Amino acid sequence: MKKVGILGGTFNPPHIGHLIAANEVLHALNLDEVRFMPNSVPPHKRLAGHIADEHRLQMTKLAIEDNPLFKLETIEIERAGVSYTIDTLRELIKQEPGTSFYFIIGADMIEYLPNWREIDELSRLVTFAGVKRPGYSTETAYPVTLIETPEIHLSSTALRKKAAANETLHYLLPEPVIQYIKENGLYGAK
C-alpha cells in the first residue's frame, strides 16, 4: 500500500520549517512521498497578507523542486472556497483507494484538533503525524503520531514582515522562493 504524507497550509510563503518537518516525517514514517497542499481559504485563519493562489502555488512548487519525493497537491485550490480537511481527504481516498494518508500537522494544529470539522471521522480516515512547535502543547485526546523534528520558531507572518521591510530572507526560505518574491514584488518586497 502506498503511504502518502499531506502537509497542508497557506504556504504564504513556504519556508524551511515546512520543508524540514515534511522531510523528517517522510523518513520517520517511511512514506513514499509528501504532498504540499496549499489551501484556498483556511477555516481557522484570517487572511491577513493573503496573496493570489497562483503565487502561493508557484512558490510552493519552487520550494520543493529539488526533492523528488515532494509533490504539489492542488485539490483544495482547484475546489476553491473554504478548505475543510475532511472533504479533501474523502476526495483523495475516493481517487486513490489503495493509499494510506498521513496528515502532517504542527503542534499549533494539534491543540486545535477539537475544533476541526468532523474530527472523529477524520481521525479514522488518516493518521495524524504531529511535529513539535515552540510555544505549543502536543497533548490531545486524538490519536497523533509524534515525530521528532528540529524545533524551528519560524512563521510565514514574520517572513512577510521581513520581506516588506526588505530584510534578509536568506536561509529562512529556499533561494528560488526569495527570488520569486522579489521579482513579483510580493509582500511589498523590492
Mean pLDDT equals: 92
Order of helices and strands: EHEHEHHEHHEEHH
Shape: globular
- Span between N and C termini? 47 Å
Strand order of the largest sheet: 3-2-1-4-5-6
List the domain count as a whole number: 1
> Which residues sit in consecutive blocks of at least 5 with pLDDT less than 50?
none
Gyration radius from CA atoms, angstroms: 16 Å
Keywords, please?
190 residues; alpha/beta; Rossmann fold
Please describe what this structure looks like.
By secondary structure, the chain is of the alpha/beta class. It has a single domain, classed as HUPs (Rossmann fold), CATH 3.40.50. It is 38% helix and 18% strand. Strands 3-2-1-4-5-6 form a six-stranded parallel beta sheet. α2 packs antiparallel against α8. The protein is globular. The N and C termini lie far apart (47 Å).
